[in-house]
Design goal:
The chain is α+β, with helices and mostly antiparallel strands. It has four domains: about 170 residues, no CATH class; about 100 residues, no CATH class; about 45 residues; about 110 residues, 3-Layer(aba) Sandwich (Glutaredoxin). Helices cover about 40% and strands about 25% of the residues. It is globular and about 95 Å long.
Protein backbone atom coordinates (compact mmCIF):
# COMPACT_ATOMS: atom_id res chain seq x y z
CA UNK A 1 0.00 0.00 0.00
CA UNK A 2 2.89 2.37 0.79
CA UNK A 3 4.39 1.89 -2.68
CA UNK A 4 1.05 2.27 -4.51
CA UNK A 5 0.11 5.41 -2.52
CA UNK A 6 3.42 7.15 -3.17
CA UNK A 7 3.44 6.12 -6.83
CA UNK A 8 -0.09 7.46 -7.33
CA UNK A 9 0.71 10.72 -5.53
CA UNK A 10 3.55 11.38 -7.99
CA UNK A 11 1.41 10.50 -11.01
CA UNK A 12 -1.61 12.55 -9.89
CA UNK A 13 0.65 15.43 -8.84
CA UNK A 14 2.42 15.49 -12.20
CA UNK A 15 -0.90 15.32 -14.05
CA UNK A 16 -2.25 18.28 -12.07
CA UNK A 17 0.91 20.29 -12.72
CA UNK A 18 0.77 19.45 -16.45
CA UNK A 19 -2.94 20.30 -16.68
CA UNK A 20 -2.45 23.59 -14.82
CA UNK A 21 0.61 24.50 -16.90
CA UNK A 22 -1.14 23.83 -20.22
CA UNK A 23 -4.13 25.96 -19.23
CA UNK A 24 -1.88 28.68 -17.74
CA UNK A 25 -0.10 28.80 -21.08
CA UNK A 26 -3.42 29.85 -22.65
CA UNK A 27 -5.56 31.31 -19.83
CA UNK A 28 -7.69 33.35 -22.24
CA UNK A 29 -8.56 30.20 -24.18
CA UNK A 30 -9.46 28.46 -20.91
CA UNK A 31 -11.63 31.43 -19.93
CA UNK A 32 -13.54 31.01 -23.21
CA UNK A 33 -14.28 27.43 -22.22
CA UNK A 34 -15.39 28.42 -18.71
CA UNK A 35 -17.63 31.12 -20.21
CA UNK A 36 -19.18 28.44 -22.42
CA UNK A 37 -19.90 26.27 -19.36
CA UNK A 38 -21.38 29.21 -17.44
CA UNK A 39 -23.53 30.12 -20.45
CA UNK A 40 -24.77 26.53 -20.78
CA UNK A 41 -25.58 26.24 -17.07
CA UNK A 42 -27.36 29.60 -17.10
CA UNK A 43 -29.49 28.53 -20.06
CA UNK A 44 -30.19 25.02 -18.73
CA UNK A 45 -31.25 26.34 -15.33
CA UNK A 46 -33.76 28.71 -16.86
CA UNK A 47 -37.37 27.55 -16.38
CA UNK A 48 -38.92 25.78 -19.34
CA UNK A 49 -41.11 28.34 -21.05
CA UNK A 50 -44.50 27.54 -22.51
CA UNK A 51 -44.71 27.29 -26.28
CA UNK A 52 -46.64 29.62 -28.52
CA UNK A 53 -48.32 28.05 -31.54
CA UNK A 54 -48.96 30.30 -34.52
CA UNK A 55 -51.62 29.13 -36.98
CA UNK A 56 -52.39 30.84 -40.29
CA UNK A 57 -55.24 29.83 -42.58
CA UNK A 58 -56.26 31.13 -45.99
CA UNK A 59 -58.61 29.57 -48.58
CA UNK A 60 -58.57 26.17 -46.88
CA UNK A 61 -54.78 26.18 -46.74
CA UNK A 62 -53.15 26.05 -43.31
CA UNK A 63 -49.79 26.71 -41.72
CA UNK A 64 -48.70 25.99 -38.16
CA UNK A 65 -45.53 26.71 -36.20
CA UNK A 66 -44.70 26.19 -32.55
CA UNK A 67 -41.74 27.40 -30.53
CA UNK A 68 -40.89 28.28 -26.92
CA UNK A 69 -41.56 31.79 -25.70
CA UNK A 70 -38.55 34.07 -25.51
CA UNK A 71 -37.82 34.65 -21.82
CA UNK A 72 -36.30 38.06 -22.58
CA UNK A 73 -39.05 39.46 -24.79
CA UNK A 74 -42.41 40.42 -23.32
CA UNK A 75 -43.58 41.79 -26.67
CA UNK A 76 -43.76 38.96 -29.19
CA UNK A 77 -43.22 40.50 -32.63
CA UNK A 78 -44.55 38.61 -35.65
CA UNK A 79 -43.72 40.01 -39.08
CA UNK A 80 -45.35 38.68 -42.27
CA UNK A 81 -45.00 39.59 -45.93
CA UNK A 82 -45.77 37.92 -49.28
CA UNK A 83 -43.60 37.33 -52.35
CA UNK A 84 -44.79 38.04 -55.93
CA UNK A 85 -46.77 35.32 -57.69
CA UNK A 86 -44.88 32.64 -59.61
CA UNK A 87 -46.27 30.12 -62.10
CA UNK A 88 -45.81 26.52 -61.02
CA UNK A 89 -47.27 23.73 -63.14
CA UNK A 90 -50.92 24.75 -63.68
CA UNK A 91 -51.19 26.95 -60.60
CA UNK A 92 -49.78 30.12 -59.07
CA UNK A 93 -47.58 30.05 -55.98
CA UNK A 94 -46.64 32.71 -53.46
CA UNK A 95 -44.52 32.41 -50.33
CA UNK A 96 -45.60 33.92 -47.04
CA UNK A 97 -42.52 34.76 -44.98
CA UNK A 98 -42.88 34.94 -41.22
CA UNK A 99 -40.25 36.50 -38.97
CA UNK A 100 -40.28 36.02 -35.23
CA UNK A 101 -38.43 38.86 -33.44
CA UNK A 102 -36.83 39.68 -36.81
CA UNK A 103 -34.55 36.66 -36.42
CA UNK A 104 -36.02 33.31 -37.33
CA UNK A 105 -37.63 33.08 -40.76
CA UNK A 106 -40.38 30.60 -41.54
CA UNK A 107 -42.04 30.01 -44.89
CA UNK A 108 -45.60 29.10 -45.87
CA UNK A 109 -46.17 28.22 -49.52
CA UNK A 110 -49.63 29.11 -50.86
CA UNK A 111 -50.94 27.75 -54.15
CA UNK A 112 -54.04 28.96 -56.03
CA UNK A 113 -55.54 28.33 -59.46
CA UNK A 114 -56.67 31.91 -60.05
CA UNK A 115 -54.97 34.91 -58.43
CA UNK A 116 -57.96 37.17 -59.15
CA UNK A 117 -60.01 35.17 -56.66
CA UNK A 118 -57.25 35.17 -54.06
CA UNK A 119 -58.46 36.24 -50.63
CA UNK A 120 -55.87 38.72 -49.36
CA UNK A 121 -56.89 38.11 -45.76
CA UNK A 122 -55.58 35.34 -43.51
CA UNK A 123 -56.75 34.30 -40.08
CA UNK A 124 -53.96 34.22 -37.53
CA UNK A 125 -54.57 32.35 -34.30
CA UNK A 126 -51.99 32.14 -31.48
CA UNK A 127 -52.31 29.56 -28.74
CA UNK A 128 -50.42 28.83 -25.50
CA UNK A 129 -51.16 25.54 -23.76
CA UNK A 130 -53.89 25.04 -26.35
CA UNK A 131 -55.58 28.19 -25.05
CA UNK A 132 -56.27 30.92 -27.57
CA UNK A 133 -54.39 34.15 -26.71
CA UNK A 134 -54.86 35.99 -30.02
CA UNK A 135 -57.28 35.73 -32.92
CA UNK A 136 -57.10 38.29 -35.67
CA UNK A 137 -57.36 38.75 -39.42
CA UNK A 138 -54.23 40.01 -41.13
CA UNK A 139 -53.75 41.28 -44.66
CA UNK A 140 -51.44 39.23 -46.92
CA UNK A 141 -49.77 41.40 -49.54
CA UNK A 142 -46.31 42.51 -50.59
CA UNK A 143 -46.09 45.00 -47.75
CA UNK A 144 -44.79 44.08 -44.32
CA UNK A 145 -47.37 43.39 -41.63
CA UNK A 146 -46.14 43.60 -38.04
CA UNK A 147 -48.13 42.17 -35.17
CA UNK A 148 -47.10 42.74 -31.56
CA UNK A 149 -48.47 40.56 -28.76
CA UNK A 150 -47.91 41.13 -25.05
CA UNK A 151 -46.56 37.84 -23.69
CA UNK A 152 -45.30 39.24 -20.38
CA UNK A 153 -47.84 37.41 -18.24
CA UNK A 154 -46.89 34.08 -19.83
CA UNK A 155 -43.11 34.43 -19.21
CA UNK A 156 -41.68 32.47 -16.28
CA UNK A 157 -38.94 34.47 -14.49
CA UNK A 158 -35.41 33.09 -14.14
CA UNK A 159 -34.33 31.63 -10.82
CA UNK A 160 -31.34 32.65 -8.68
CA UNK A 161 -29.18 29.74 -9.96
CA UNK A 162 -29.53 30.82 -13.57
CA UNK A 163 -28.84 34.43 -12.64
CA UNK A 164 -25.73 33.40 -10.67
CA UNK A 165 -24.04 31.75 -13.67
CA UNK A 166 -25.03 34.66 -15.87
CA UNK A 167 -23.46 37.16 -13.46
CA UNK A 168 -20.12 35.31 -13.15
CA UNK A 169 -19.59 35.05 -16.93
CA UNK A 170 -17.66 38.37 -17.05
CA UNK A 171 -15.26 36.93 -14.47
CA UNK A 172 -14.37 33.82 -16.47
CA UNK A 173 -10.75 34.94 -16.96
CA UNK A 174 -9.83 35.55 -13.27
CA UNK A 175 -11.68 32.38 -12.27
CA UNK A 176 -9.77 30.46 -14.94
CA UNK A 177 -6.42 31.86 -13.78
CA UNK A 178 -7.17 30.87 -10.16
CA UNK A 179 -8.07 27.31 -11.24
CA UNK A 180 -4.87 26.99 -13.32
CA UNK A 181 -2.67 28.23 -10.47
CA UNK A 182 -4.50 26.06 -7.93
CA UNK A 183 -3.90 22.93 -10.04
CA UNK A 184 -0.15 23.64 -10.20
CA UNK A 185 0.11 24.37 -6.46
CA UNK A 186 -1.87 21.27 -5.47
CA UNK A 187 0.18 19.09 -7.82
CA UNK A 188 3.45 20.37 -6.38
CA UNK A 189 2.18 20.08 -2.78
CA UNK A 190 1.14 16.48 -3.38
CA UNK A 191 4.50 15.48 -4.89
CA UNK A 192 6.57 16.97 -2.04
CA UNK A 193 4.10 15.70 0.56
CA UNK A 194 3.20 19.14 1.95
CA UNK A 195 0.06 19.23 4.17
CA UNK A 196 -1.09 15.90 2.66
CA UNK A 197 -4.57 15.80 4.19
CA UNK A 198 -5.51 19.34 3.07
CA UNK A 199 -3.87 18.79 -0.31
CA UNK A 200 -5.56 15.50 -1.20
CA UNK A 201 -8.92 16.77 0.11
CA UNK A 202 -8.63 19.81 -2.16
CA UNK A 203 -7.65 17.60 -5.10
CA UNK A 204 -10.68 15.39 -4.45
CA UNK A 205 -13.04 18.40 -4.42
CA UNK A 206 -11.52 19.77 -7.62
CA UNK A 207 -11.60 16.35 -9.32
CA UNK A 208 -15.26 15.79 -8.35
CA UNK A 209 -16.06 19.20 -9.87
CA UNK A 210 -14.17 18.34 -13.08
CA UNK A 211 -15.83 14.92 -13.23
CA UNK A 212 -19.28 16.49 -13.00
CA UNK A 213 -18.45 19.00 -15.73
CA UNK A 214 -17.11 16.37 -18.12
CA UNK A 215 -20.05 14.04 -17.41
CA UNK A 216 -22.48 16.89 -18.05
CA UNK A 217 -20.71 17.72 -21.31
CA UNK A 218 -20.69 14.11 -22.48
CA UNK A 219 -24.18 13.09 -21.37
CA UNK A 220 -26.04 16.18 -22.60
CA UNK A 221 -23.70 17.02 -25.49
CA UNK A 222 -23.54 20.64 -24.37
CA UNK A 223 -19.80 21.42 -24.48
CA UNK A 224 -18.07 19.30 -27.10
CA UNK A 225 -14.55 20.05 -25.85
CA UNK A 226 -13.97 20.25 -22.10
CA UNK A 227 -10.69 22.17 -22.41
CA UNK A 228 -8.92 19.98 -19.83
CA UNK A 229 -5.62 20.30 -21.66
CA UNK A 230 -6.48 23.34 -23.75
CA UNK A 231 -5.69 23.07 -27.45
CA UNK A 232 -2.60 20.94 -26.74
CA UNK A 233 -4.43 17.64 -26.33
CA UNK A 234 -7.97 17.44 -27.66
CA UNK A 235 -10.19 15.02 -25.75
CA UNK A 236 -13.82 14.20 -26.39
CA UNK A 237 -16.19 14.75 -23.45
CA UNK A 238 -16.40 11.00 -22.75
CA UNK A 239 -12.61 10.62 -22.89
CA UNK A 240 -12.31 13.52 -20.44
CA UNK A 241 -14.92 11.94 -18.16
CA UNK A 242 -13.12 8.58 -18.09
CA UNK A 243 -9.83 10.38 -17.41
CA UNK A 244 -11.40 12.17 -14.43
CA UNK A 245 -12.87 8.91 -13.14
CA UNK A 246 -9.37 7.39 -13.12
CA UNK A 247 -7.93 10.43 -11.32
CA UNK A 248 -10.83 10.34 -8.84
CA UNK A 249 -10.17 6.66 -8.13
CA UNK A 250 -6.44 7.31 -7.70
CA UNK A 251 -7.16 10.23 -5.35
CA UNK A 252 -9.42 8.06 -3.19
CA UNK A 253 -6.68 5.44 -2.92
CA UNK A 254 -4.20 8.17 -1.90
CA UNK A 255 -6.69 9.38 0.74
CA UNK A 256 -6.94 5.89 2.25
CA UNK A 257 -3.14 5.63 2.28
CA UNK A 258 -2.61 9.18 3.58
CA UNK A 259 -0.53 7.90 6.52
CA UNK A 260 2.15 6.72 4.11
CA UNK A 261 2.69 10.20 2.62
CA UNK A 262 5.60 12.01 4.26
CA UNK A 263 7.02 15.41 3.39
CA UNK A 264 10.33 15.12 1.52
CA UNK A 265 11.45 18.51 2.90
CA UNK A 266 11.47 20.16 6.27
CA UNK A 267 8.28 22.16 6.81
CA UNK A 268 9.97 25.58 6.52
CA UNK A 269 11.65 24.67 3.20
CA UNK A 270 8.44 23.04 1.88
CA UNK A 271 6.60 26.34 2.51
CA UNK A 272 9.28 28.17 0.50
CA UNK A 273 8.83 25.69 -2.36
CA UNK A 274 5.08 26.34 -2.36
CA UNK A 275 5.60 30.13 -2.27
CA UNK A 276 8.02 29.95 -5.20
CA UNK A 277 5.52 27.75 -7.07
CA UNK A 278 2.78 30.32 -6.47
CA UNK A 279 4.95 33.21 -7.67
CA UNK A 280 6.13 31.38 -10.79
CA UNK A 281 2.66 30.13 -11.76
CA UNK A 282 1.07 33.55 -11.22
CA UNK A 283 3.83 35.27 -13.23
CA UNK A 284 3.57 32.70 -16.02
CA UNK A 285 -0.23 33.04 -16.27
CA UNK A 286 -0.17 36.83 -16.25
CA UNK A 287 2.56 36.92 -18.91
CA UNK A 288 0.45 34.72 -21.20
CA UNK A 289 -2.60 36.89 -20.56
CA UNK A 290 -0.74 40.10 -21.32
CA UNK A 291 1.05 38.79 -24.40
CA UNK A 292 0.34 35.48 -26.14
CA UNK A 293 0.70 31.79 -25.21
CA UNK A 294 4.40 30.91 -25.01
CA UNK A 295 3.62 27.62 -26.73
CA UNK A 296 1.08 28.26 -29.48
CA UNK A 297 -1.24 25.30 -30.13
CA UNK A 298 -3.67 27.25 -32.34
CA UNK A 299 -4.16 26.58 -36.07
CA UNK A 300 -2.82 30.01 -37.07
CA UNK A 301 0.51 29.48 -35.32
CA UNK A 302 3.83 30.39 -36.89
CA UNK A 303 4.87 27.95 -39.65
CA UNK A 304 1.37 26.59 -40.41
CA UNK A 305 -0.04 26.61 -43.94
CA UNK A 306 -3.66 27.52 -43.27
CA UNK A 307 -4.84 26.61 -46.76
CA UNK A 308 -3.68 23.02 -46.30
CA UNK A 309 -5.43 22.90 -42.93
CA UNK A 310 -8.64 24.18 -44.55
CA UNK A 311 -8.60 21.86 -47.57
CA UNK A 312 -10.70 18.69 -47.79
CA UNK A 313 -8.68 15.83 -49.39
CA UNK A 314 -9.98 14.32 -52.60
CA UNK A 315 -12.24 11.36 -52.00
CA UNK A 316 -12.90 12.30 -48.36
CA UNK A 317 -16.40 11.48 -47.10
CA UNK A 318 -18.92 14.33 -47.13
CA UNK A 319 -21.88 15.14 -44.88
CA UNK A 320 -25.04 13.22 -45.79
CA UNK A 321 -28.38 14.91 -45.07
CA UNK A 322 -32.01 13.85 -45.42
CA UNK A 323 -35.01 16.15 -45.90
CA UNK A 324 -37.33 15.87 -42.91
CA UNK A 325 -40.82 17.42 -42.93
CA UNK A 326 -42.48 18.34 -39.64
CA UNK A 327 -46.28 18.24 -39.38
CA UNK A 328 -48.51 18.82 -36.37
CA UNK A 329 -51.77 17.14 -35.38
CA UNK A 330 -53.71 17.75 -32.17
CA UNK A 331 -50.80 19.85 -30.85
CA UNK A 332 -48.25 17.06 -31.38
CA UNK A 333 -45.43 17.36 -33.93
CA UNK A 334 -44.25 14.40 -36.02
CA UNK A 335 -41.38 13.96 -38.49
CA UNK A 336 -41.81 12.46 -41.97
CA UNK A 337 -39.31 11.59 -44.68
CA UNK A 338 -39.96 12.37 -48.34
CA UNK A 339 -40.73 8.72 -49.08
CA UNK A 340 -43.25 8.60 -46.23
CA UNK A 341 -44.99 11.74 -47.54
CA UNK A 342 -45.40 10.17 -50.98
CA UNK A 343 -47.44 7.33 -49.45
CA UNK A 344 -49.85 9.47 -47.41
CA UNK A 345 -52.07 12.55 -47.73
CA UNK A 346 -51.36 14.29 -44.45
CA UNK A 347 -53.67 17.24 -45.19
CA UNK A 348 -56.66 14.92 -45.45
CA UNK A 349 -55.55 13.25 -42.21
CA UNK A 350 -55.77 16.59 -40.42
CA UNK A 351 -52.05 17.43 -40.24
CA UNK A 352 -50.71 21.00 -40.48
CA UNK A 353 -47.31 21.71 -42.04
CA UNK A 354 -44.85 23.18 -39.49
CA UNK A 355 -41.34 23.19 -40.94
CA UNK A 356 -38.77 21.45 -43.11
CA UNK A 357 -35.30 20.62 -41.80
CA UNK A 358 -32.17 18.97 -43.14
CA UNK A 359 -31.23 16.15 -40.79
CA UNK A 360 -27.59 15.01 -40.66
CA UNK A 361 -27.39 11.27 -41.34
CA UNK A 362 -23.61 10.85 -41.35
CA UNK A 363 -20.78 13.27 -40.65
CA UNK A 364 -18.18 13.75 -43.36
CA UNK A 365 -14.52 14.81 -43.19
CA UNK A 366 -13.98 18.10 -41.39
CA UNK A 367 -10.70 19.97 -42.03
CA UNK A 368 -8.82 21.46 -39.07
CA UNK A 369 -9.76 24.97 -40.24
CA UNK A 370 -13.40 24.76 -41.30
CA UNK A 371 -15.14 27.96 -40.17
CA UNK A 372 -12.74 30.69 -41.31
CA UNK A 373 -14.62 33.13 -43.54
CA UNK A 374 -14.14 36.65 -44.88
CA UNK A 375 -17.66 37.97 -45.44
CA UNK A 376 -18.72 41.36 -46.73
CA UNK A 377 -20.84 43.80 -44.70
CA UNK A 378 -24.07 42.10 -45.79
CA UNK A 379 -22.59 38.72 -44.73
CA UNK A 380 -23.83 37.24 -48.01
CA UNK A 381 -20.53 37.10 -49.95
CA UNK A 382 -17.47 35.17 -48.81
CA UNK A 383 -14.04 36.27 -50.08
CA UNK A 384 -12.05 33.48 -48.46
CA UNK A 385 -10.97 32.02 -51.83
CA UNK A 386 -9.60 35.41 -52.86
CA UNK A 387 -7.71 35.51 -49.58
CA UNK A 388 -6.19 32.08 -50.17
CA UNK A 389 -5.32 33.05 -53.76
CA UNK A 390 -3.41 36.14 -52.59
CA UNK A 391 0.21 34.90 -52.66
CA UNK A 392 1.76 38.17 -51.45
CA UNK A 393 2.53 39.26 -47.90
CA UNK A 394 -0.72 39.98 -46.10
CA UNK A 395 -1.69 41.20 -42.67
CA UNK A 396 -4.72 39.71 -40.93
CA UNK A 397 -5.97 42.17 -38.29
CA UNK A 398 -8.35 40.35 -35.97
CA UNK A 399 -10.92 42.23 -33.86
CA UNK A 400 -13.12 39.48 -32.40
CA UNK A 401 -15.20 42.15 -30.63
CA UNK A 402 -14.58 45.80 -31.54
CA UNK A 403 -16.60 47.09 -28.59
CA UNK A 404 -14.26 45.27 -26.18
CA UNK A 405 -11.06 45.87 -28.16
CA UNK A 406 -8.00 47.27 -26.41
CA UNK A 407 -7.36 50.63 -28.10
CA UNK A 408 -4.38 51.83 -26.04
CA UNK A 409 -2.05 51.14 -28.97
CA UNK A 410 -4.46 52.20 -31.72
CA UNK A 411 -2.08 54.90 -33.04
CA UNK A 412 0.68 52.33 -33.41
CA UNK A 413 -1.73 50.06 -35.25
CA UNK A 414 -2.68 52.91 -37.61
CA UNK A 415 1.00 53.55 -38.40
CA UNK A 416 1.42 49.85 -39.12
CA UNK A 417 -1.57 49.95 -41.49
CA UNK A 418 -0.10 52.95 -43.29
CA UNK A 419 3.28 51.22 -43.62
CA UNK A 420 1.64 48.10 -45.05
CA UNK A 421 -0.11 50.23 -47.66
CA UNK A 422 3.26 51.78 -48.61
CA UNK A 423 4.95 48.37 -48.79
CA UNK A 424 2.02 46.97 -50.81
CA UNK A 425 1.12 44.44 -48.10
CA UNK A 426 -2.49 43.28 -48.38
CA UNK A 427 -4.66 44.21 -45.40
CA UNK A 428 -7.47 41.99 -44.12
CA UNK A 429 -9.10 43.53 -41.02
CA UNK A 430 -11.81 41.17 -39.80
CA UNK A 431 -14.36 41.31 -36.99
CA UNK A 432 -17.52 39.64 -35.73
CA UNK A 433 -19.07 42.92 -34.60
CA UNK A 434 -22.05 44.65 -36.19
CA UNK A 435 -21.27 46.83 -39.21
CA UNK A 436 -22.71 49.92 -37.48
CA UNK A 437 -20.25 49.45 -34.61
CA UNK A 438 -17.43 48.94 -37.10
CA UNK A 439 -18.27 52.12 -39.04
CA UNK A 440 -18.44 54.12 -35.83
CA UNK A 441 -15.06 52.70 -34.73
CA UNK A 442 -13.50 53.58 -38.10
CA UNK A 443 -14.86 57.12 -37.95
CA UNK A 444 -13.72 57.65 -34.35
CA UNK A 445 -10.15 56.49 -35.00
CA UNK A 446 -9.87 57.68 -38.62
CA UNK A 447 -9.29 54.22 -40.12
CA UNK A 448 -10.12 54.18 -43.81
CA UNK A 449 -9.90 50.53 -44.82
CA UNK A 450 -12.77 48.12 -45.51
CA UNK A 451 -13.49 45.48 -42.88
CA UNK A 452 -14.40 41.85 -43.42
CA UNK A 453 -16.74 39.90 -41.16
CA UNK A 454 -16.44 36.45 -39.63
CA UNK A 455 -17.60 34.19 -36.82
CA UNK A 456 -16.68 35.34 -33.32
CA UNK A 457 -15.76 31.86 -32.05
CA UNK A 458 -13.50 31.33 -35.04
CA UNK A 459 -11.81 34.71 -34.61
CA UNK A 460 -11.08 33.90 -30.97
CA UNK A 461 -9.34 30.72 -32.13
CA UNK A 462 -7.02 32.61 -34.53
CA UNK A 463 -5.19 34.67 -31.93
CA UNK A 464 -5.70 35.32 -28.20
CA UNK A 465 -5.67 39.08 -28.47
CA UNK A 466 -8.27 41.70 -29.33
CA UNK A 467 -6.99 43.06 -31.64
CA UNK A 468 -4.35 40.62 -32.78
CA UNK A 469 -2.07 40.63 -35.82
CA UNK A 470 -1.16 37.68 -38.05
CA UNK A 471 1.40 38.16 -40.84
CA UNK A 472 1.24 35.66 -43.69
CA UNK A 473 3.21 35.10 -46.87
CA UNK A 474 0.73 33.47 -49.17
CA UNK A 475 -0.97 31.05 -46.80
CA UNK A 476 2.05 30.44 -44.57
CA UNK A 477 1.88 32.07 -41.13
CA UNK A 478 5.06 34.12 -40.59
CA UNK A 479 4.39 35.70 -37.20
CA UNK A 480 1.72 36.53 -34.59
CA UNK A 481 1.61 39.70 -32.47
CA UNK A 482 -0.76 40.73 -29.68
CA UNK A 483 -2.08 44.24 -29.25
CA UNK A 484 0.39 44.74 -26.40
CA UNK A 485 3.41 44.01 -28.60
CA UNK A 486 2.67 45.36 -32.05
CA UNK A 487 5.61 45.27 -34.47
CA UNK A 488 7.28 48.43 -35.70
CA UNK A 489 7.36 49.36 -39.37
CA UNK A 490 11.08 48.58 -39.41
CA UNK A 491 10.46 45.06 -38.13
CA UNK A 492 7.92 44.40 -40.87
CA UNK A 493 10.46 45.66 -43.43
CA UNK A 494 13.15 43.33 -42.07
CA UNK A 495 10.83 40.33 -42.21
CA UNK A 496 9.82 41.04 -45.81
CA UNK A 497 13.45 41.61 -46.82
CA UNK A 498 14.56 38.16 -45.65
Amino acid sequence: MRFITNLLKILVGLLFIFSGFIKSNDPIGFSYKLDEYFSVFSADLEPVQDSIQIELSNQNQNFSHKESLNAYATNYTITTFRSPWKIHAEAFQTEITILLHNQKTLSWLLEVKDTSNFDNQALMVCRIKNQEVANQSIKIDLDTVITSLDMGKYIKPNGSSSQFFKKIRPYSLPIGIVICILEIILGMALIIGFAPRVTISSILILTILFTFLTWYSAYFGKVTDCGCFGDAIKLSPWQSFYKDIVILGASIIILFGIRYIKSIFYNAFAIKVIIVTILLSVSFSMYCVHYLPIINFLKFKKGNNIYKLATIPKGAPVDVYENIFIYAKNGKEEEFTLSELSKRNLQEEGYLFVDRIDKLISKGYEPEIHDFKLMDESRSNDYIEDFYADSSYKLLIVFNDIEKAEIKNIEKLKKLITQCQVEDISLYPITASDSKVVNQFKATHDINIPFYYGDKTNLKSIIRSNPGIVLLHGNMVIENWPNTRLPSSEKIKRIIAR
